[in-house]
Amino acid sequence: MPEKSPGPPRYLTPVQVADACGVSPRTVSNWIRTGSIPAHRTAGGHGRVSAEDLRRFLIAHRVPLPPGLAAGQPADEGGATAGVPEGALAPSSGGSAVEQRRARRVLVIDDDEVLLEVFREVLTRAGFEVEVARHGFLAGYLVGHARPDAVILDILMPGLDGYEVLALMRRRPEARGIPVLACTSLKGADVEARLSAAGFDGYVRKPIDFRALVEQLRARLR
């Protein structure tokens, strides 16, 4: 009788969690240290995260689940980054020599700190420079200081919402030609109509398809 193959591990190392989330192991270690994600320590002092806790963590922060976790199982050690195959994150080889000398800069504004970390990791690996802000009050300053080539702007934020931030940004001469993509979990034709009427150049829906986002950014900045 053939031996039964062992099932997937119930607990994951920070490196495996990093692969599943599309972030660096250092980011995962910070999540564990601050208690953002439940974990326990082995006798040797190494952090371990249960597959189910990781699954709940990703769902709570609207991060796309890797195939293994989507089925209730942990991702394998070589898993995809936040649901995006490695090849989708490779820097584009197109564009002129001048474009290739300077990476396109993307400003991401969202009040979800965990999601901002994922944005930073995924877009950086895709070849972009990334600036992030946790609220809209910094948007005007960062648009003038960082001079982004594109902006990803969350709609539902405390204080100034995405519509208000966009209106303030468009008043600045240096921001008028910058493509701004809305980022929202809201759905429906009325939402799309309002985003268009407000002046957004496009939108991405949460939970985010990072492959589609990278392709949309490249198309708009080509």
Can you describe this structure in just a few lines?
The protein is α/β, with parallel strands linked by helices and 222 residues long. It has helices at residues 14-21, 25-34, 51-60, 67-70, 97-101, 113-125, 139-146, 162-170, 189-198, 210-221, and strands at 11-12, 40-41, 47-50, 105-109, 129-133, 150-154, 180-184, 202-205. The strands form two sheets. The protein has a five-stranded parallel β-sheet, with helices on both faces.
Description:
- The chain is of the alpha/beta class and about 220 residues long.
- The protein has two domains: about 10-70, Multidrug-efflux Transporter Regulator, Chain: A, Domain 2 (Orthogonal Bundle), CATH 1.10.1660.10; about 85-220, 3-Layer(aba) Sandwich (Rossmann fold).
- About 40% of the residues lie in helices and about 15% in strands.
- The chain is built from ten helices and eight strands.
- The chain has helices spanning about 15-20, 25-35, 50-60, 65-70, 95-100, 115-125, 140-145, 160-170, 190-200, 210-220; strands at about 10, 40, 45-50, 105-110, 130-135, 150-155, 180-185, 200-205.
- A five-stranded parallel sheet has the order 5-4-6-7-8, with helices on both faces. A three-stranded antiparallel sheet has the order 1-3-2.
- The longest helix is centred in the middle third of the chain and has 13 residues, at about 115-125.
- The radius of gyration is 19 Å and the shape is elongated.
- The model is unreliable at about 70-90 and about 90-100 (pLDDT under 50).
